[in-house]
Design a protein that fits this description.
The protein is an alpha+beta fold. The chain has helices at 9-18, 31-34, 55-68, 118-126, 142-148, 155-158, 186-192, 228-240, 275-283, 298-301, 327-337, 355-358, 387-401, 422-426, 430-440, and strands at 23-24, 48-51, 72-75, 91-94, 101-104, 109-113, 130-131, 165-171, 177-181, 201-208, 210-211, 215-224, 246-254, 260-268, 290-291, 294-297, 314-322, 346-351, 373-381. It is globular. The structure holds flavin-adenine dinucleotide.
Length: 457
């Protein structure tokens, strides 16, 4: 599809009249705020930002963008590191104000609109002692995270977020409303569970819920960086035998006093009478600088790490999966982290195990199931003058770790300058996703995403 850059005033007026929600354009007092996303390094200038107040607004936006041949981006939580929820020129269809949540405690399901964030959904489901597996931060949007797969503290017990999706309501590229589930448009339902925003605009998500908490054991234990090799080897052994109810991440970070430290962050969501026994290998091993593991409400754990990644901070990242977490990989992580230019940056190794790994890779579009360690290099900084040095650190770090990569990358962690890794992101399911794209979006109307081109390029 060829896109127009500009749009005539008369057409804008037409859209404004058609919408129940607000329409923002350059020159409006709230335009600068409206074009922000979570990553402060993203600087895009859409021609129009439509805050949808309901599904009819989404339909009006899709029809308008087609008629005017406008590039179209879709924003829900605005948290994708690549800033793909925005486009330069064109129309941003913003769903962030669609906030309805309905929990059915008897059926153990929840239906939430696309503008809901994890903290909001957890709060409502936890009122009934229930939850669906989400990410590990409360401010992230449920929409982008679910459509890309979704990993977090409950993945060992209950799988990826998309494994718990029961149905979605969508607006297609043709401007039609449909429901996709196991029994309706089952091909599309397969595709939205990992294929990102390639097939349409999801306006609401229905999830399976499970009993969780409300009290879990969570937090982290800090160890000296001088013992990083031993700590990470211990983490590797610990995770090899971890029960499904325990998920742990190893992190290299800088403490408040400026010294680098190794942290193991964990959540145990099983029966509390076993919690101490399960977690004790983290507490009683080696030199513990600080033991911050404690019983807490699940909703508190879900927001425990929010402060480390505030909206507006600059971020750049690289990631991949590892089949093995070898000693050479550990040494490389430690050597590269010693060169970190910003004390805000972090390296995280997530252990993906249990229920998420038991689903066959072809069962959903999210096929990254067989490599147990997801490894992320995250640069964070505030001063724009430091952008290049931080990006260089990430690139050099990533290059050094590539020999340990399984050749897979999580679509929700793929930064904006990595288009060559799209196939890695969709892995074994790429060809099937291309066929689905050709069927549901042959003109590639939904192209502001980690794009599956209908041509299969
Ligand atoms: C601080 C932080 C913590 C994170 N933690 C985790 C984590 O624990 N686990 C995890 O799996 N991921 C995590 N992520 C990654 C997260 O999954 C992605 O950033 C995800 O895209 C966020 O969803 P969003 O709705 O906020 O995204 P947005 O930036 O709004 O959207 C990203 C893309 O998703 C698509 N999209 C969004 N909404 C819709 C919709 N309604 N219909 C169709 N397509 C849509 C579009 O292509 C859009 O460009 C984290 C990210 C950040 C920044």
């Amino acid at each position: 599809m060829q896109f127009e850059i500009d749009v005539k005033d008369s057409a804008v007026q037409q859209l404004r009249t058609a919408l129940r929600g607000a329409l923002v354009r350059p020159g409006d007092p709230d335009y600068e705020t409206a074009r922000q996303v979570w990553n402060g390094a993203v600087n895009r200038h859409p021609a129009l930002i439509a805050y949808c107040a309901g599904v009819t607004d989404v339909l009006a936006c899709v029809r308008f963008a087609r008629e005017q041949r406008l590039r179209t981006a879709v924003r829900s939580g605005g948290h994708h590191v690549a800033g793909i929820a925005l486009c330069d020129g064109g129309l941003v269809i913003d769903l962030s104000r669609l906030k309805s949540i309905r929990v059915d405690p008897a059926a153990r399901t929840a239906t939430a609109q696309a503008g809901v964030r994890w903290g909001e959904l957890d709060r409502e489901t936890q009122a009934f002692g229930l939850a669906t597996p989400g990410g590990t931060e409360s401010d992230v949007g449920i929409a982008g995270l679910t459509l890309g797969g979704g990993n977090g503290w409950l993945m060992g017990l209950y799988g990826a977020t998309c494994d718990n999706l029961l149905a979605v309501d969508m607006v297609t590229a043709e401007g039609q409303c449909l429901t996709a589930s196991a029994t309706q448009h089952a091909d599309l339902f397969w595709g939205v569970r990992g294929g990102g925003g390639n097939f349409g605009i999801v306006t609401s998500f229905t999830y399976q819920l499970h009993p969780v908490g409300p009290i879990v054991l969570g937090g982290m234990v800090l160890y000296p960086f001088a013992q990083a090799r031993e700590v990470i080897e211990h983490y590797r052994e610990f995770t090899r035998t971890a029960p499904d109810a325990l998920t742990a991440y190893a992190c290299l970070i800088t403490a408040e006093d400026g010294t680098p430290v190794v942290a193991i962050a964990a959540c145990y969501a099983g029966p509390l009478e076993h919690a101490e026994q399960v977690i004790s290998p983290l507490r009683t091993w080696g030199t513990v600088l600080s033991d911050q593991l404690r019983l807490m409400p699940y909703t508190e754990l879900q927001s425990l790490f929010d402060a480390a990644r505030p909206a507006g901070r600059r971020c750049y990242m690289r990631s991949h999966f590892m089949r093995e977490f070898s000693n050479d990989a550990i040494d490389t992580l430690i050597t590269q982290f010693r060169r970190v230019p910003s004390p805000l940056s972090a390296v995280i190794v997530e252990h993906c195990h249990g229920a998420i790994a038991r689903v066959p890779p072809e069962a959903t579009a999210f096929g990254l199931r067989t490599s147990p360690y997801h490894f992320e290099i995250l640069a964070f900084w505030d001063d724009p003058a430091q952008s290049e040095v931080n990006r260089q650190w990430v690139r050099a770090f990533f290059a050094a770790t590539q020999p340990f990569s399984s050749g897979e990358v999580y679509v929700n962690s793929l930064d904006q300058d990595e288009p060559q890794r799209i196939r890695e992101a969709y892995g074994v399911n790429y060809e099937q996703l291309v066929a689905l794209k050709r069927h549901y979006d042959p003109t590639n109307f939904f192209c502001c995403n980690h794009n599956i081109a209908p041509t299969g390029r």
